[in-house]
Design a protein that fits this description.
With 122 residues, this protein is an all-alpha fold. Helices cover 59% and strands 0% of the residues. The chain has five helices and no strands. It is flat and about 75 Å long.
Length: 122
């Protein structure tokens, strides 16, 4: 069990053990519990809590890929190019955008609080 941001995600594990294995998390011996945790599939609540990119099952990701193909085909038929075609937003995309926004905010704050001096070029 991994600790992420100080959390153990026990609620998620309890839900996953019921959903995927049909057992209570508390009723499984520690060594078996670890084996079951390592075998949880993408789409499980525990893996989604660890990393949003694992929030969807492989099937869900494949459906999104098919939708992306249809959207590209639609764009190609309408404009003669796939450039600018829409794409299904994945859970990892949201996470990456949020991180990029936070980095940009920090950079902007640093630039605004830095004392700048003019440099003489010549």
């Amino acid at each position: 069990m991994r600790r992420v941001d100080g959390r153990l995600y026990v609620r998620e594990l309890r839900a996953d053990f019921r959903h995927w294995y049909g057992v209570r998390y508390e009723d499984v011996a520690a060594d078996e519990a670890m084996d079951l945790i390592y075998c949880l599939p993408s789409g499980s609540a525990y893996l989604a809590a660890l990393n949003p990119q694992w929030a969807w099952s492989a099937e869900h990701g494949a459906i999104a890929d098919v939708c992306d193909l249809l959207l590209r085909h639609e764009r190609l038929s309408a404009t003669g190019t796939t450039e600018g075609a829409q794409r299904v937003t994945r859970p990892g995309d949201v996470y990456e955008r949020r991180n990029a926004l936070e980095k940009a905010k920090k950079a902007k704050k640093k630039m605004e609080t830095t004392k700048w001096e003019l440099v003489d070029d010549g």
